[in-house]
Amino acid sequence: MRILVLGATGYLGGHVAERLRALPGTRVLVGGRSPAADVTVDLASDSPRQLARALASAGPDAVVNCAGETGADAVTLAEVNARGPAVLCAALLEAAPAARLVHLGSAAEYGPGTPGRRVAESAATRPAGPYGATKLAGTMAVGASGLDAVVLRVGNPVGPGAPRTGLPGRVTALLADAGRDPDATLRLGDLSAHRDFVDVRDVARAAELAATTPGPLPPVLNIGGGEAVPVRELVRTLAGVAGFGGRIVEEGGAGGSARSPRVSWQCSDITAAGDALGWRPSYALDASLAALWAAGSRSEERASAR
Q: How many CA atoms are closer than 13 Å to the CA of 290, on its beta-carbon side?
């Protein structure tokens, strides 16, 4: 089986590619802008015809699209998250119409949740900002394409390698800088929101199952932890794993995410993923944070040794 992974140099894509490479009888092709990529692809600027030529030469049985932007400006978000999937679908219809497309969407497409409730795939989508809106546009393009396709709406990924652009990775870096100084202070934004965290390795396993499970799949599947966890609890747990003995100070909106006040509750119903893929999360949040800290500590040690 030939599986093309787009965005394999990113956080989610790296784990997905690693997981797929372990499958017997599978050849993983990496698509991207890098000269080292097996297939040269730029979803933000390629025309459908250019992309179709690249896909035809690769001949994939499945494509997993992990390419995406999170904290960029609105134009870049639209180019990558909305235009990218639309162009990819158009190219696949021309070059590899029988290929299974697995597209990584986001729980941010749902927008604000209702405290105490899990959101199912049938719920209304009301994204609260440009990121969620552009991800939703990408999901709609995939759903309307007519391809054998499924969108995995991913919650808040956490685990080894989490980037500093997200809260878990940023807090890990701050804790590494602070060390065990009892006088250290971590100054963070508002931590009152609840989020549905899912281990990045569980996301990779879901992508593997979605790419290899025979037969048609539902158009959208939620991939999350299935629980709403206070962000404050995640930070305190991570601080405990790091042995941090200083203070954690919340400075309200001054240093926090603009999205948190608008989306104070996020929790996904993951029943459908279990039914369609036999998937459930296998990593508890404590284990995800321990792996995140261990990987972050090794990275800091390597950086110090240079």
A: 5
Give the span between the Cα atoms of 57 and 270, in whole angstroms.
36
Q: How many residues does the chain have?
A: 306
| Cα angle for residues 197, 233, 293 (degrees, 5° grid) | 70
The per-residue DSSP string of 265-277 comes to B--B--HHHHHHH
CA distances from 258 to 194, 200, 252 (A): 14, 24, 11
Cα(228)–Cα(245) distance, integer angstroms: 26
Contacts of 24 (CB under 8 A, 6+ apart): none
pLDDT digits (tens, 9 = 90+) for 10-33: 999 999 999 999 999 999 999 998
Q: pTM here? A: 0.94
Convert 185-197 into a string of H (helix), E (strand) and C (coil): EEEECCCCCEECE
Query: Can you tell me the distance from the alpha carbon of 26 to that of 208, in angstroms, rounded to the nearest whole number?
Result: 11
